[in-house]
Amino acid sequence: MKIASIDSALYQVPLAVPLSDSTHGEIPSFELITVRIRDDQGLEGLGYTYTVGVAGLAIHVLIDRYLKPDLLGQDPGRIEHLWERMWWRLHYSGRGGTASFAISAIDIALWDLTGKRQGTPLWRLLGGSTPRVKVYAGGVDLHFSLDALKDQARRFLARGYGAIKMKVGRPRLSEDIARVRAIRELIGPDVPLMVDANQQWDRPTAQRMCRVFEQFNLVWIEEPLDAYDHEGHAALAVQFDTPIATGEMLTSAAEHGELIRHRAADYLMPDAPRVGGITPFLKIAAQAEHAGLMLGPHFAMELHVRLAAAYPTEPWVEHFDWLEPLFNERLEIKGGRMVVPTRPGLGLTLSEQSKAWTREIAEVGARP
Amino acid sequence: MKIASIDSALYQVPLAVPLSDSTHGEIPSFELITVRIRDDQGLEGLGYTYTVGVAGLAIHVLIDRYLKPDLLGQDPGRIEHLWERMWWRLHYSGRGGTASFAISAIDIALWDLTGKRQGTPLWRLLGGSTPRVKVYAGGVDLHFSLDALKDQARRFLARGYGAIKMKVGRPRLSEDIARVRAIRELIGPDVPLMVDANQQWDRPTAQRMCRVFEQFNLVWIEEPLDAYDHEGHAALAVQFDTPIATGEMLTSAAEHGELIRHRAADYLMPDAPRVGGITPFLKIAAQAEHAGLMLGPHFAMELHVRLAAAYPTEPWVEHFDWLEPLFNERLEIKGGRMVVPTRPGLGLTLSEQSKAWTREIAEVGARP
Questions:
Q1: Span between the terminal Cα atoms of chain A, in Å
Q2: What is the count of residue pairs from A and B with beta carbons less than 8 Å apart?
Q3: What ipTM does the predicted assembly reach?
Q4: Which of A18, A270, B44, B350 has the greatest number of C-beta atoms within 10 Å?
Q5: What is the edge-to-edge ordering of all strands in the sheet holding B3-21?
Q6: How far apart are alpha carbons B170 and B165 in whole angstroms?
Q7: Domains of chain B by range and CATH?
Q8: Reported confidence tier of residue B37, pLDDT bands at 50, 70, 90
Q9: pTM greater than the 0.90 cutoff
């Protein structure tokens, strides 16, 4: 078995409504970077990574220019070996960071290919047995009026989501409190509710806000502090009953290991397309399980729904529909849970619609 | 004062003799990525970063495509502000890593421009007062025969270097020991000698080798362990009289801060074109000074000779001539020390020769 071809493409996916949160400002579009790996028997694996609009072309260049030539002709089934090879090929430009995104897309394609070769869904391949996973609707709604926020919550519940996440981090703390109170009152005391501060607060502010939020029975408070302030997060996790969730910004298994050693989270939020793919995601999950942490993988539901199904304690997967138009497949929600698809491998195919968003690499790579 | 233009170029610089060390294998060429920033009064700053042959085009893309549009029209004198702006612009693709290289080239160009505007050499601008700094000749010679190694040492001394670094990490440890012994005997007991293992050893091997090397009166043993094994390096630094040097692979001030907190080095080896430029280099130096560490900046002598001149305890700067043909200027060695140039800013200009090594960006960016 040999890798016969590797094709990478860059997409810029416009958002119907620009997103905003307290760290990234306005996000008018996402970048998606896909990798298609074909073996010498004609089987194909599809992997992807994404950005919130920055660095996508650099990720494509790392894949196409620096990783691909080193992988052609290799056995696609030796994933751990190929992962190490990619990691050391790019290590001089730093461990993690942009390099991890490039490695992710390839690693995910290799896992998809392996699942297809074996005719087994990815989550079964990984030993998973949970056919439905917990899901919540992710609101990116910091700039919404209170009325719009309430409308969104009603819409989420009507569409069958059993849980909701909302953003906090408004300039006035009193607004955050009023908004969380309003949503809690609207949905009642028992519907799971998360809040996400996107690293907005300093330590004293986070301390105060976590204290106030204790009354709202939240599933978690996400990124109350800078994503790398492990000591600060650990102090909050120890003090308050409300669980602390963090980890989405980290870009390697080593960084997650450091976070876990600090016990900086109750819910760990690894993101497979950011940490280097499924291979390091599984190692992160193993460390998290050993440390007794719960899991709430960040973004990329198409992929994480499969990985969540193989984690021993039930993770929460977040539902965002932004990348959906890129793929032909849709995820089904039943009884407030997401149904884990049974197609072999990752089982995603690119939609007709996606073609409209392809970026011409030659053009964007050219000198101005 | 406004930034009127930013031009980035990618060079592939062939090496007359391919290098090799125990981590990177064979290195046939370097990549150099330059940034020229012109202000609205026609003054120009030149900055650069480099790789050992991988990821250069991705770094160029980050600069040209994602950072440049956000910097045009800004005041080039507000370096701290612009640095933060670049860091947060790229943060979603990871803190440090490839992003740090891109930020480095721009940050260095901004400092050069600032020095030129004030008519002051960079090291004076930074408060430096040492007109000559300690220098050693860096041998990348793991694959050399013992005879070739000895010839190189004789050549280094004849050319006026007062200190020599050699590679270790051969498959047989006995070879390493014999080679270091031979060079120590050749140059005598007092000429400063360093060895560099380039992360080659595991902990038990490093433990044994550091023990054996105690007899050779080495200035330092460099990277005996994985670059991120701070606990391992700290244990060696505590146990042995021979100083431990590490830090060259790290790509941010935060990563260096972590290394320093672990006391994983006696000599810290930050690399300004890898950590995000002069701005974070100065913060790393401040942390190192506070922790009582010595400094041995990695590579990039054209830049580090200026930064070393401003550090309170005398750093060792390593002399490699690989990038020299790119610039018109040459560094002078007098009495075993490197003379710190007095031209304003960084004071480098690209040579006629460099043009031959420019890579056509449009071509390399195109799809295959």
A1: 42
A2: 132
A3: 0.93
A4: A270
A5: B3-21, B25-39, B44-51
A6: 15
A7: 3-119+352-365 (3.30.390.10), 123-339 (3.20.20.120)
A8: very high
A9: yes
